[in-house]
Design goal:
572 residues; alpha+beta
């Protein structure tokens, strides 16, 4: 301790009115390696404490101006939640005097004349207590900081989930939802929206597990669902997109059982898809109860890759008085205090025994009575859709005007400079913008071939001025791409402009996509590129031939600097 730097040595404050005792004690403690500040009375001790905040205070009991007891009480009040031990120096060992020292806030005492060994032992013991207290205090503050931080993060997460996943499904007339999470965050999600033509789209998802881990997947599902419904995509396309997203982000073993429903206004059928949920039911009180059962006929979302997934919707005829019931497995697997499951039999009994048009309240009441005070182990979700209400849905004129706007003609242009050409794969960029159009998602494959071929030709033969004839032989093919890489790295100037315009068909089904691609090059021999037949042995030229077979028209202009094509599409 004696060799430690001053800032590492404990600082002791001594208050003793006897000069000889004070000086002697100060000398002893400094020899033991402590830093010492000495004052003459209790008042000076309080003032010194406020200035230096020592690690420990040694107070004589009997002092003028302010005695040790009063000084101790004041210093303890100034400490707050800190702990600097107080050691009383007393000339008496009477029990009453020692008790008074403790009552005044003292942590220990030592009687005069001092035993140097005992004095050091008590000081070191109290300093160890102080160090332990400081550690506990620091840990307490850290825990409180983390508690507050976690609470803030939790509140933020709740707000984000509410804003992204939260749905106005209860605002739709004829739709009732019971969603009871087993934890703060729910792994069940119910999403609903109306398409541009007024169809009701509804999706119930049940992620593996519960709590935050299960709830994470609900965010992308909600974003994809609402975005694609608004743009008029089919439910099959939405399910495929959700499946692709979840398959790429969820770890093995985590998946989403889902039920999807579409009810067209003024229609006599509904479309439904059940992937891993318990059996859905169509109930009609006027037809004797349960009229139709829809079992799961698909795997849950994210289990299969999208190219292997079957997103085909089942068509079911609707009759007057029909109501649809979807629910997560948390309903039938809910356990009561006796360890019994609510089960499918109780659910069916609620529906078969109901004398009402709706079974929703009856199922809820039966489930609540069954659980009592027990909290379900899993998220519990029940959805009822009054199909009569959905079939009678009428759009107001404002909604129709908005829907009409969504399907209007559109156009956009993209100007790409040399930095973008060098660093970016342009084709997916343009393809993504185009395929967001209603209906064109199903034509991504053909559009990718067309755009990829023509954009790459504009870069290679326009911006980079490559010679297509180099690829007539295998050796030339390799030399071609070596030279292409060199020219791309050295490229100092270059640009491509892509103009896209879409015109819907008069029938409302399909339309024409016109794309114009112009590069900054000097032009190239477009006839040479397209003269090869499909079975040509040449290593180049067949791409343009394939493009011509996919488009309505293909035309080169301005000496090869510009290429324009028209792509006609239809869902028919």
């Amino acid at each position: 301790m004696k060799n430690k730097p001053d800032k590492l040595r404990p600082c002791l404050l001594i208050a003793d009115d006897d000069a000889a005792s004070r000086l002697m004690l100060k000398a002893i403690l400094e020899q033991e390696g402590y830093r010492v500040v000495a004052v003459e009375d209790g008042k000076e001790a309080v003032e010194a404490y406020q200035q230096i905040h020592p690690d420990m205070i040694l107070l004589d009991v009997m002092m003028p101006v302010m005695d040790g007891h009063e000084a101790a009480r004041r210093i303890k009040r100034l400490m707050g939640d800190r702990f600097e031990p107080i050691l009383f120096l007393t000339a008496t060992d009477k029990e009453t005097s020692l008790v008074a020292c403790i009552d005044a806030g003292g942590d220990d005492f030592v009687t005069k004349p001092y035993s140097r060994v005992l004095l050091k032992a008590k000081i070191d013991s109290l300093l160890r207590m102080r160090a332990l207290y400081s550690t506990v205090l620091t840990q307490r503050d850290e825990l409180e900081y983390h508690r507050v931080s976690m609470a803030q993060e939790h509140d933020t997460a709740c707000a984000i989930f509410d804003n992204i996943v939260g749905t106005a499904v209860r605002d739709y007339v004829g739709v009732q939802v019971k969603l009871t999470p087993s934890a703060q965050f729910s792994g069940d999600v119910v999403l609903s929206a109306r398409s541009p033509i007024g169809a009701l789209y509804l999706l119930l998802g049940d992620f593996t597990g519960h709590g935050l881990t299960a709830a994470v997947g609900t965010v992308p599902v909600a974003e994809i669902f609402h975005s694609m419904v608004q743009k008029g995509f089919s439910m099959s396309n939405i399910l495929s997109e959700v499946n692709q997203k979840l398959a790429g982000m969820l770890p093995t073993g985590l998946f989403c059982a889902a039920g999807a429903v579409v009810v067209e206004p003024s229609g006599n059928q509904l479309m439904i898809w059940n992937g891993g949920l318990p059996d859905a039911f169509i109930y009609n009180q006027n037809k004797g109860g349960i009229r139709y059962r829809i079992p799961s006929s698909h795997l849950p979302l994210s289990v299969l890759p999208s190219d292997s997934m079957n997103s085909h919707m089942t068509m079911i005829d609707i009759e007057q008085g029909d109501r649809l019931y979807l629910y997560s497995d948390g309903v039938i697997e809910a356990n009561n205090t006796a360890g019994e499951m609510f089960g499918s039999a109780r659910l069916l009994a609620c529906m078969n025994d109901s004398a009402q048009d709706s079974c929703f309240d009856g199922i809820n009441d039966a489930l609540n009575q069954f659980l009592g005070d027990e909290v379900a182990d899993d998220d519990v979700t029940l959805v009822e859709v009054d199909l009569d209400v959905q079939r009678e849905f009428k759009q107001d004129e404002n909604y129709k005007a908005q829907a009409s706007k969504r399907t209007a003609s559109w156009r956009f242009s993209i100007n790409l400079d040399v930095n973008v050409i060098r660093q970016t794969d342009i084709t997916p960029l343009v393809l993504q913008a185009i395929s967001e159009l209603q209906g064109l998602q199903d034509f991504r494959g053909q559009l990718s071939i067309i755009l990829g071929e023509l954009i790459n030709n504009s870069i290679d033969y326009g911006v980079l001025a490559m010679d297509s004839g180099m690829r007539d032989t295998a050796d030339g093919y390799m030399q071609y791409y070596t030279l292409r890489e060199e020219r791309m790295n050295a490229l100092g100037f270059g640009a491509i402009q892509i103009d896209c315009e879409h015109t819907p068909a008069d029938s409302g089904d399909g339309g024409e996509l016109r794309v114009r691609i112009e590069d900054s090059g000097a032009g190239f021999d477009s006839i040479l590129l397209s003269k090869h037949a499909a079975d040509s042995p040449a290593f180049h030229g067949r791409g343009v031939y394939l493009v011509r077979s996919l488009v309505k028209s293909l035309e080169y202009q301005s000496g090869g600097k510009v290429v324009e094509f028209v792509y006609q599409w239809s869902n028919g």
